[in-house]
Write a structure and sequence with these properties.
- The structure holds two protein chains of two kinds.
- Chain A is of the alpha+beta class.
- Chain B has a six-stranded mixed β-sheet with strand order 6-7-8-3-9-10, sandwiched between helices.
- Chain B is an alpha/beta fold.
- The longest helix of chain B has 16 residues.
- In chain B, a hairpin with a 2-residue loop joins strand 4 and strand 5.
- In chain B, helix 3 packs parallel to helix 5 and helix 5 runs parallel beside helix 6.
- Classes of the chains: A alpha+beta, B alpha/beta.
Chain lengths: ~450, ~230
Amino acid sequence: MEMELNKPMDGSGNKPVQEVDLFRQLLRPFMPDHIVRIFKLALKSLWLHKLRSFLTVLGIVFGVCSVIAMLAIGEGASYEAQEQIKNLGSQNIILQSVKPSDDQKISGAAQNFVLDYGLKYSDIKRLRSTIPGITIVVPGRIVRDYIWNATRRVDGEIIGTVPWYPEMRNHRVSVGRFFSEIEMEYAANVCVLSAETAQQLFPISDPIGKEVRVGGTYYRIVGILESQKVSKTTSADAAPKTITYRIFIPLSTARERFGETILKRRTGSMEAERVELHEVTVKVQDPKMVVSVAQAINNLLQRNHKKKDYEIIVPLELLRRAERTKQIFNIVLGSIAAISLLVGGIGIMNIMLATVTERTREIGIRRALGAKRRDIVTQFLVESVMLSGTGGLIGVLFGVAIPFLVTMFANMKTIVTLWSPLLAFSISALVGIVFGLYPAIRAAKMDPVEALRHE
Amino acid sequence: MAQKSIAKLEDVKKTYLMGVVTVQALRGVSLDIKEGEYVSIMGPSGCGKSTLLNLLGCLDRPSSGRYLLGGVDVSQMDDDQLSEIRGKRLGFIFQSYNLIQQLTVVENIEVPLFYQGIPHEISRARAIEMARRVGLEHRLHHKPFELSGGQQQRVAIARALVNDPLVILADEPTGNLDSKSGLEILQIFDELHKQGKTIIMVTHDENIAKRAQRTIRLRDGVVESDTWNN
């Protein structure tokens, strides 16, 4: 028996049909439970293609760990440089005598047997009287000679200076004391050794109260300077050559013992130099004035020196330059890092696009079973963020470990700052979102009918 | 006939744009399927069967006309609303089972509940109950590829039932199965019908169509006949 049922009915019977709604009140898509399941699902999908996921993660690992490692090495290098400059004193201006270059010599006092150049005591007098805001001026004389303790000797620098030298140049006296003003006044034969010199000349015994010999004169040791911070931290990589052995004697003593003329015996020739002061340190009271004072000193010295036989070193400027260099360094490293992360991100995008195409059918099924577009976006986005996040995490571990190994095997100072792993990790997570978004949106935009038909 | 109208189409038309040519897949279909009916849809290929099923399944919207599902007009709903309707009111059974390969049996059954945000304990219990009903309680943690076709289709049925839908839509459910497992599936359908479920099944097999209460034949985008089987 057949019955035609092809007549349209009016909408009188339209009553909301009772719903499935035992569960409706329990609809809570943002519960931790739900989120955990989304993550588990993503993990399962990624696990399906272990090698592929691993390789994608690897791209991010390299990006992140190179960022951290490079920043750590860069930071370490610039820290050393800055530390060295800081030891010169940021409020100081250091004037040094330099031997004028040959062409200047000819035009100047060419016939003179004794080469006369450098800073004079008169320069200091002039500086004191004309430039305001200068607190202390430390004159210094530097003579190179052998320093003896009985039969031990080192080739070092004898520095004639003033009692307040250590505080100006950030040196600390570790044992004993620096020489006093009275000793300065009487040109006493006392000296203070640098830590390196002390170690070299008195490897086992306590040098305080003993004497060292320079030329024909004996100097009583009153103190030893602390080894400078930098050389301590980098003791491993500082080659022995670069250590300068120094002893400090009162300036007045230096003038008396060595005179103004220094004879240097070289193989085959003899050279005489006449230098009053090798080094002058000027401390400027106002740190803001350092650069302008340096300029003023330069103008003053230029007027009195025909030849360019001096050099002005402004540690503050060096520090600024070092900071600028570091900035440039960081920008360059940052760009390299950005590029490597970009490459990793492209890898993720590539894989996610392939995954989306491959799983078109699955997307169709999920859509048919009630998944909204945003559910699909979430699913694929979580997968890509999981890839990049895992890569970021492993990258951070390697990135922190590599500088350690570099310090251990290459003897280079490295500093892993706290922000660099944080930055690198959050960028990697961001890469996952940015490069996962397009494939995820593409997946969500698919027509469910088409997607279901996909083979 | 006091039963409620479950799926009601009013002069539904669907046109596709294929390149520059517009194809009229449905040229005005009116249907009224009541609660508890077991309906088969037949017709030669290209008659608009799939299009009709997609519309009934809220996977697509009609170009014109109205579609009332459980008394609610779904023909003008947006994508999110349709997703919600699919998840809550419809159960799909496909020819090729369409299980998600990386999920286990019980996880596959849970998928519709997952998208409704139903807590894990509740949905897991319900999924296990469904698996038991289709006789797969011993296969809960197997992956689809470890199951036979018949078993996979039973998982799909369990998945279609898990959200207690208004209508179960089946597209050639036995098309990929041997006759024995096909029969098993059809027996489950009979059982569901007895329990009062509304089933709409697309098939091209006369014998299968005859098991349904009512057969709707389509030709060239219109209903050719709508008959009750005895």
